UniProtKB/TrEMBL annotation:
Residues 197-331 form the LamG-like jellyroll fold domain. Keywords: Disulfide bond, Signal. SUPFAM superfamilies: Concanavalin A-like lectins/glucanases. It comes from Nonomuraea cavernae. It comes from the Bacteria. One of its GO terms (biological process) is carbohydrate metabolic process. This is LamG-like jellyroll fold domain-containing protein. InterPro entries: ConA-like_dom_sf, Ig-like_fold, LamG-like.
Length: 342
């Protein structure tokens, strides 16, 4: 402790901090433990099992600049971090571990200061590369802006024919306006659209009205009597989705606002039906786990029901339609929401 009869300047205080009262140098302190270590696996590249795992942690605090971090990695949970496991030394609190595979990896991080003192070891984090992201069976950005062909950008050649629609500004770029009485986009059946065990429908919708009370305002429908979905404004004007003409029940959400863009996503898979609005799960019906769709050919219709004579027409704008024959996970739906179909 020091007591002065004068006011010290900052440099004097720092000088006092660095020396003890008896003139000895104050020992350097070790860095604090790197906090909140997380390891987040990215997707493997298509056709591979290789991807990146991103590590982040909270920076250590030390009394001097020049702290570096040592990253330890192993493939088994019980490993004890030591020098042989160090894969990298970095100066910032983040690291991308590239070209990992699908098996889990286990990590620790510690900090070393300019005098060689090490912090306590971080807590362990586990991360794994995710299997390649599902690719759509069909994806429509509706960017054409003229003509009647609506191109599929999935690579599966499932282009559609627009009937009685109008091009207009959309959620992202252009979109199609559906008049509520005769508009639809019709996509012929194809092998790539066969939904056998699972399906996902996604679209941005901007309803202009809820239509007649008996109108289902269909956004996407597919597979005739096998896969059926009406995604906005069923009998009481709320979004609803189902498969097999509703034989396995349905999922419903709160009414969508008119003249406003909302993102709708419907998934059906081994654990049932899920309906998401703006990326938020609003209804999960898991009662029919283990039941699957039939493998029949699957015509696809946007903006109307997929029967030979279209009905239950949607009124308003539709943009960025995606169809998968897998059930997307919630974070994958959020990714699609944030990215236009290109
Ligand atoms: Ca230090
Ligand atoms: Ca668009």
């Amino acid at each position: 402790m020091r007591i002065y009869g004068t006011k010290l300047e900052a440099e004097d205080i720092r000088a006092d901090m660095a020396t003890s009262v008896n003139g000895l140098t104050v020992p350097d302190t070790a860095p604090t433990m790197p906090g909140e270590l997380t390891a987040t696996g990215g997707y493997a590249a298509p056709g591979t099992v290789d991807g990146d795992i991103r590590l982040t942690w909270n920076a250590s605090v030390d009394d001097k600049p020049g702290v570096v971090y040592r990253i330890y990695r192993a493939t088994f949970l019980t490993f004890v971090p030591r020098a042989a496991y160090i894969i990298a030394t970095v100066t910032t609190s983040g690291y991308t571990d590239s070209l990992r595979s699908l098996a889990p990896y286990y990590y620790y991080v510690d900090a070393v200061d300019s005098t060689g003192q090490a912090s306590p070891m971080s807590r362990q984090a586990m991360g794994a590369v995710r299997p390649p992201r599902p690719v759509p069976a069909a994806a429509y950005g509706m960017e054409e802006g003229s003509g009647n062909v609506v191109h599929d950008s999935s690579g599966n050649l499932n282009s559609g024919q627009a009937r009685n629609t109008a091009w207009t500004a959309g959620k992202h770029g252009n979109a199609l306006f559906f008049n509520g009485t005769s508009s639809s986009v019709d996509v012929p059946p194809s092998y790539s659209l066969q939904a056998v065990r699972a399906v996902t429908f996604e679209a941005w919708v901007n309803p202009a009205s809820y239509g007649r009370p008996d109108n289902k305002e269909v956004v996407i429908s597919s597979a005739g009597n096998t896969l059926w979905s009406s995604m906005t404004a069923v009998w009481d004007n709320v979004p609803e989705a189902s498969v097999r003409s509703g034989q396995l029940g349905s999922v419903r959400g709160p009414r969508l606002p008119l003249n406003t863009w909302s993102h709708l996503a419907f998934t059906f898979g081994e654990d049932g039906h899920r309906l998401y609005i703006n990326g938020v799960l609003v209804h999960h019906n898991g009662l029919h786990a283990g039941e699957y769709l039939s493998g029949s050919y699957s015509p696809l219709r946007i903006g109307a029901l997929d029967i030979s004579s279209p009905r239950d027409h949607f009124h308003g704008l539709i943009d960025d339609v995606r169809v998968y024959t897998t059930a997307l996970l919630p974070d994958q739906i959020a990714e699609d929401m944030s990215q236009p179909v290109i």
